[in-house]
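seq as requested:
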Amino acid sequence: GETEQIVAYPKKLNPDLWVMQDGVSNMHMALSFVWDWKADIISKIPEVERVTGFLYLNTVIQVKDSKLFGFVVGLNSKNSKAGPWEIVRGRGLEAEDEIVIPEPMRTVYNIELGDNARVIDLDYRIVGFSKGTYSSANPVFFVMKPRLESSLSSEGTLSYFLVHAKPGVNINELKKTILSKIDKVNVITQEEFLANDYNMATQMGAETILIMTLICTMLSALIIGYTSFSMTIKKRREIAIIKAIGGKGYQLILVILMQSLIISTLAYLFAVMLLLLVDFAMPFLAPQITIGLSWQLLLQPFFFVILISILGSLYPAIKLIRLYPADAYRTG
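struct tokens:
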């Protein structure tokens, strides 16, 4: 969920092409500066319908006594297409000393409209809370460009251009046209940009997540396997009696496997119910954390559970049916 939320902002913007500094190919943890006059050149290309530029910076933002890392978007105008798409409390930007921040921060940091947030060397007054612009890795803040570029001493530059083509235009041909008219820029499609941003986000947390996943996987395998094993061993006396009165070995194995599969499936369904409950309660308990559930994600562990439960019960079952019923019953 957090990884998906990292690309929520560029995904929502949804231009046909992204134009940025040469050597830059994504937004997350990136830095790009392009002369603003290049946007005028692009806008005059006949195939282009609209060009939207904005200034972008990743930096530390101070809100009250808390400091957090976030991304700041400097808008050319209050109606810029690069601005927040939904304000859930307050209003949008109207003055240069105002800022719009992600809505989850309101409850996490006990922030109210009118409080101040400090970006670089200047204070901004909070006038609105935006929806869908927060993740723990990159909360997105919105300010007006003139004041932000003054702090950066970057007058005359923007970070990204959002290029929307006219209907029916070949995007690849338009990409070549822009590259032929403007030097020292990189031009990529929306699909490429999102893929690059998503890969960057996953790489930054991939090793930690992989280690946590391996530890949890091994631990769950031990729990499932041991439970299946111990349930079978505890039934050795009953198995011995059934075998003594004529029970077939393969029938005993099937019964033991069925018992293990039923219990494991019920445990899995109970775990899914708990996970759905956590998903429902998370916005109230921890609004700063985003969980993304899908049926594919929920079903993937099921086959692992079934495999481990079979292996955990199959081995002791085969050993037990090879014992003499008298020995198994006498030793318990």
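The chain has eleven helices and twelve strands.
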